[in-house]
Amino acid sequence: MAEYDVFTRINEHYAKMSKGHKAIADYISEHYDQAVFMTAAKLGETLGISESTVVRFAAGIGYDGYPKFQKALESCVQGKLNGIQKMDAKYGRSSQSEILTSVLSADIEKIQDTIDNLDPAAFESAVATILEAETIYIMGLRSNEPLAAFLHFYLNMIRGKVFLLNTTSVSETFEQMIHIGPKDCFIGISFPRYSMRTLKAMEFANDRNAKVIAITDSIHSPMNLYSSCNLLARSDMVSVVDSLVAPLSVINALVVALCLKCPEQVRKNLETLEETWNNYQVYLNDEIDFIDDEPMLDYSLRRREK
Fold it and tell me: What is the pLDDT of residues 67-89, one digit of tens each?
């Protein structure tokens, strides 16, 4: 059985699950380290649903009874805990320079694989969708947060009405998306292990007829269930550390393509920013372009006493 087979099965069946089964799937995805020790009765009590519903959930994703499901979940959790051991086996006897070379070489391979497999038509469709959308919503959680923040930062410099969704509450996510509609675009970023919260947000956006773009790792990703445009970037795991190099390169290419599509708007926005910085950052510079710049590092933020 594959290391994350339980979660793969959950992702594959999620779209067709009942409300009660989705609640179980959400809890297990977010709290698998606690769920692994729970009986069907305890899990049901925790979620306020019946024990029989929990048992039916296990059967619904392909297990012959709850005990076998629990054993499979235990194997998944153990596989996660063994990540450090796997990393030690691969790099334990390597020098620091050998580790550096090995990891960077692996990242180069992932970028080349992404180049070979990314669909140019999907990329062009994503660029057009982002430019035409009235409002953009971006979501990427856990290790994907830096990717979402990077994309949000640059899209916000290119165009207006770009929102970054970042919350630990599913209900708050829906509250932030309450106005999403057919003229809008939702960009969901998720790589293994996939985020159930991001998937639910994409489902909601799809139900509201918004254009949905998925930035994920493969055609088998559950993120593709609700997206009309899929940008695939290879992101293998080296033990417990996700490689985000290829996904970031795809996002970077997306930003560059968008800038080239509307250079005048980008230039105008940058000029406005420059004017604003000049007007409001008179006494303290926050950035250094060259080593001989004078950023006033010794400037006291407190008023000097007279």
Answer: 999 988 888 776 655 554 445 54
